[in-house]
Write a structure and sequence with these properties.
11 helices, about 15% strand, Aspartate Aminotransferase, domain 1, 2 domains, alpha/beta, Aspartate Aminotransferase, domain 2, globular, 7-stranded mixed beta sheet
Length: about 400
């Protein structure tokens, strides 16, 4: 039996920094702390650290190293992609996103809408998938950008990004994907993948928080959103955070080395947890079971009343049992409001407040899965002993 007080199952929110990345960061903090823009030896040592990390991150997605722009995280990378394209135009254009985007895409899109841009939000089916035909029908002559998330952080569904990107490219429209939940967990090869812009994040792959990157396909132009010293190919001004970038690079290199074995292991654990909970009254799986992130398990609560029994309530009860899970997306876990992702998938307001997410990682064992399934069943029985027929789906 594992220690029930130490089961962390929220790896989609963040991952623990691996020791190798910590060692790289400590080396920078103590011996390579110069400003990488400085021409002297101290600065050039730091510049070498940044460029080494750029190569490591680029290799993870088979990209040219000059196509990687370091940011402070996935959110900034998403904003740079959306706003950076928008700033190329003197007049409002047309933007297409999905209806299940992370807020780092949905909020910039809403801001552009206020500036006069037309924003089309593609519908999804009950599994959270976009239909490529809908994208083809939505494209217009003035569509400047299509942005569709690759792996949905709240329900685990993976989009047919390759097909969607090919449709956009055939139309002559730029395509961006938020691949924060995918890169480091599944192979991504931008040489074979018709994307123009792709966002990734360090702390989703056992690197430090505070580092991310935007891949920009060579030849694609975007405008900077920060004014300043012109670092990162004049697209992201500000002195680079050398220690976290170094940790990011090491984490990316090790993710590439370990991915095949670790992904297969996570899929087995994921499916085991789904199977153990498959006959539990009151749990309804959410998202696509086939087209799914390898580490991701999610449900909504059949007994949810939208007030006293919500996903947030369930997270608190699991936490009391020593198990860390999330109420849907980590960015919404502090709010008792309907999940916009579940609403877009056709769930009613009450059930859309009840989403829970269990995401697995390097330290997750089979024993952890078995113990978590047992505890989850007990918590559910205690909170809602009498099943209520699910409505509003």
């Amino acid at each position: 039996m594992p220690d029930a007080m130490q089961i962390y199952l929220d790896y989609s929110a963040t991952t623990p920094v691996r020791p190798e990345a910590i060692a790289a960061m400590q080396e920078v903090l103590t011996a390579q702390w110069g400003n990488p823009s400085s021409l002297h030896a101290w600065g050039q040592r730091s510049a070498t650290v940044v460029e080494r990390a750029r190569v490591q991150v680029a290799r993870l997605i088979n990209a040219p190293e000059e196509s990687i722009i370091f940011t402070a995280g996935g959110t900034e990378a998403d904003n740079l992609a959306i706003t950076g394209v928008a700033r190329l135009f003197d007049r409002p254009q047309h933007l297409i996103i999905s209806s299940v985007e992370h807020s780092a895409i949905a909020e910039p899109a809403r801001w552009l809408e206020q500036l006069g841009w037309q924003v089309t939000r593609l519908p999804v089916d009950s599994m959270g998938r976009v239909c490529p035909r809908d994208l083809r029908a939505a494209l217009q002559p003035n569509t400047a950008l299509v942005s569709v998330i690759y792996g949905q952080s709240e329900v685990g569904t993976m989009q047919p990004v390759e097909s969607l990107a090919a449709i956009a490219r055939a139309h002559g429209t730029l395509f961006h994907t938020d691949a924060v939940q995918v890169v480091g967990r599944l192979p991504v090869d931008v040489q074979q993948f018709p994307v123009d812009l792709l966002s990734l994040s360090s702390h989703k792959m056992y690197g430090p928080q505070g580092a991310g990157a935007l891949y920009i396909r060579p030849g694609v132009q975007i405008a900077p959103i920060l004014g300043g010293g012109g670092q990162e190919s004049k697209l992201r001004s500000g002195t680079q955070a050398v220690p976290v970038i170094a940790g990011f690079g090491v984490a990316a290199e090790l993710a590439a080395q370990e991915m095949a074995t670790e992904t297969s292991r996570l899929v087995q654990l994921r499916d085991r947890l789904f199977d153990l909970l498959s006959d539990v009254p009151g749990l309804v799986p959410t998202g696509d079971r086939v087209h799914r992130l390898p580490h991701h398990v999610s449900f909504c609560l059949q007994h949810a009343d939208g007030e006293t029994l919500t996903g947030k309530t369930f997270v608190r009860q699991m936490n009391l049992a020593g198990i860390g899970i999330s109420a849907g997306s980590a960015c919404h876990s502090g709010k008792v409001t309907p999940s916009p992702i579940l609403l877009a998938m056709g769930y009613g307001d009450r059930v859309a407040k009840s989403g829970i997410r269990l995401t697995l990682g390097r330290d997750t064992s089979e024993a952890d899965i078995d113990w978590t399934a047992m505890v989850l069943k007990q918590v559910l029985e205690r909170l809602a002993p009498k099943p209520i027929i699910l409505t509003g789906v």
